[in-house]
Amino acid sequence: MRNLSEAPLFSVGFRPLFLAGAGFAVLAVMVWGLWLHGHWLALQPAGGMLAWHRHEMPFGFAAAIVGGFLLTAVPNWTGIAPLRGWPLIALVLVWLAGRLAWWAPLPVGAVLLVQGAFLPLLAGLLGRDLIAARKRDNYPIVLVLALMAGCQALTLSGIHYDDAGLQRRGVLAALWLIAALMTVIGGRVLPFFIQRGLNRPPAPPAKAWPTRLLLPASLLIAVTFAAGLDDSPSLWLAALFVLVGGVQVWRLIRWHDRGLWRVPLLWSLYLAYAWMALATLAMALWHLGLIGQQSLATHALAVGGVGGLILAMIARVCLGHTGRLLQPPKGMVSGFALVLAAAACRVWVVPFSSLGLGLSVLLWCAAFSLFLLRYTGFLFKPRL
């Protein structure tokens, strides 16, 4: 048992949680696709398949990746030793228990408690270290995690009381909170990755105003979803989405360098961030009555923005933090293209053909399967 706690897999948070999150990305979407096409077993999770899918993509898949990234980044920011060994194993088991609780014959209260434990624990661990190191600039990250835990509680309440509207509000608010977190982190790392990846001279310090504007505006968007204010088109919400989307487009223009199209680890991040901007502007169009289905904007964000950024980011982080050259393994470039194609099918093919949904599921599963195939060995081995 001691050997398990000292294994390279449990030496830092990104190793087990990226592996768990990517594996769950394949499994959860595959199960969802099979169920949609009538090929799933009679076994149903608590609350039904729709509730399960809604909950598990932000609070299972995305939460694992966010946790792995922050448990790796915060020690670098604070100088405090990362969570490792048995404490890390315990946290991963809490996450795993939340996934299994859906299918377990447990009392409703116990199921809700198990499902909702991971995010509060993660926020507490990260907040403890950030406060100890007095890293006030990073306190908003803990706030976002705490708000995500609140959204999860809202979603689980909707499942418990069989209130589909409450479920939807909690899930969509959480999705835009994840987008807010990626907006903040993306604003820090994308310019740095582009500068380092293309050997450009150091750029002037990044302007602070985009993050200071985007973070509160993105949090306000999440609050409107949690409050149910997105149920009908609104001019002031259209203006808010135009503001956020416009600043994201401005960032993309400012970050652009023709050389990034030669580097897969850069264009994958850049195009995924572009999907976030597209989704935000699509929400503005919906509020203006120019798009008929709000779900198209939601899935543009979920599949292209969040899914694309997650795959591109974990592919780069795993290479850098295992001591390998920043060049994706054979086949992984196809994975970047596949997840972006999955977003395109979900948003632009589904409105015209039911085949688009199945194709999107297959492309998504193939993309994350390539990550598992090429990176699992790295995560189990010591840093080079």
From TrEMBL:
Keyword Membrane listed: yes
Membrane-crossing segments per the record: 12-37, 57-74, 86-104, 110-127, 139-161, 173-193, 213-229, 235-253, 265-288, 300-319, 331-349, 355-373
Protein name, per record: NnrS family protein
Coiled-coil intervals: none
Keywords: Membrane, Transmembrane, Transmembrane helix
Organism encoding this protein: Pseudomonas ekonensis
Domain of life the protein comes from: Bacteria
